[in-house]
Amino acid sequence: MNGVQLRAKLRLQASVAQVLETATVRSAGPLPTVVASELALCAPNIPPKPVLYLGRDLETQAIVSLITLKDKSAYIAILGAPGIGKTSVATAVLHAPDVVAAFGLHRFYVACDAVGGRGSSLNALCAHFGISEPNRGAAAKALCDILAEERCLLVLDNFESAWEAADNRADAEETLGLLVTVKSLSLVITMRGAERPQSVPWTRPLLPPHAPLHDDAAKQLFVAISDISEHNAHLAELLQLLDNVPLPLVLTANIAQYEPSEELTVTRKSLPM
Ligand SMILES: Nc1ncnc2c1ncn2[C@@H]1O[C@H](COP(=O)(O)OP(=O)(O)OP(=O)(O)O)[C@@H](O)[C@H]1O
Ligand SMILES: [Mg+2]
After folding, report:
1. Residue to substitute in 53, 56, 79, 87 for testing ligand 1 pocket (most ligand atoms within 8 angstroms of CB)
2. Which residues have CB under 8 Å from 72's CB, separation 6+?
3. How many whole angstroms from 247 Cα to the centroid of ligand 2?
4. Ligand 2 centroid, distance to 18 Cα (angstroms)
5. 180 with 196: CB under 8 angstroms?
6. Helix axes 136-147 and 121-128, enclosed angle (nearest 10)
7. N or C: which end of the chain has fewer CB within 10 A?
8. Where are the domains of the chain?
């Protein structure tokens, strides 16, 4: 899809959403929910809303509040250790009703996992938006033109892949510097670690790197997936060994569907920390 086709698709989706909105008003139905869910369905290439999403309401709401401030672009970095839940938070933000209402179809999500090596983050973005200009300057302009059409939200997920390697860093910083020149654009990046790229005037207050889940949320998550009882004698110790970090919690809870919790605890203890 090229830039023109993408714009046409967005306009078509906007018309569909408009028709749905009008129809909902006429039928005096539950307007906000229906319209919000239709818009959520129509926004292109957005990952689905997390089904299980526990213990991150405050963090999610803090980001939603910053990016939905009227007439103001926001630049947010979601930081933290591997598997701590950064992508989940970004996805929840993309589907938050206030964000759907503010940005509608103009919510974009680009996974940057594949940008590593000598890849260029600008090329990855252009590929996402169907821009095939070989000239870097022309490609950058085409990208900015698409993003500047309407107020929009762009999520760059796992941006560390584009930024971490010394060879790529200048390119990644340049791409971010370009994006923040687009007046109507709000940017959310997720990155492993605690360091932010320098070419972005990050919105204040700066959000700290994500911490592990609170005990209650970790327990709820483990129990929901593993189906073991919250009164299980080994659960507390197992959760402690997993440090309340979502990824190991999810992986271990899946194994706990068929492995006895006692054996899991013993195995986990024998692993290097
Ligand atoms: N708040 C949460 N509630 C329930 N499950 C969660 C939560 N946060 C993360 N998870 C689950 O934990 C796993 C890892 O989450 P996620 O991919 O969001 O982490 P990440 O920090 O983006 O990881 P990476 O560093 O690899 O990019 C996923 O299976 C996700 O569904
Ligand atoms: Mg991630």
Report:
1. 87
2. none
3. 10
4. 33
5. no
6. 50
7. C
8. 45-192, 215-270
CA dist 200 → 23, 164, 174, 246 (Å): 42, 16, 10, 29
Nearest CA among 142, 177, 180 for reference residue 163: 177
* Residue among 222, 250, 251, 254 whose CB has most ligand 1 atoms within 8 A, to mutate: 250
Give the pairing of strands 107-111 and 75-80: unpaired
User: Which atom from ligand 1 is nearest to the alpha carbon of 91?
Assistant: 18
Ligand 1: residues whose CB is within 6 Å?
50, 52-56, 80, 82-88, 158, 190, 192, 221, 246-247, 250
Fold of 45-192: Rossmann fold (3.40.50)
Cα pseudo-dihedral 134, 138, 142, 144, rounded to 10:
120
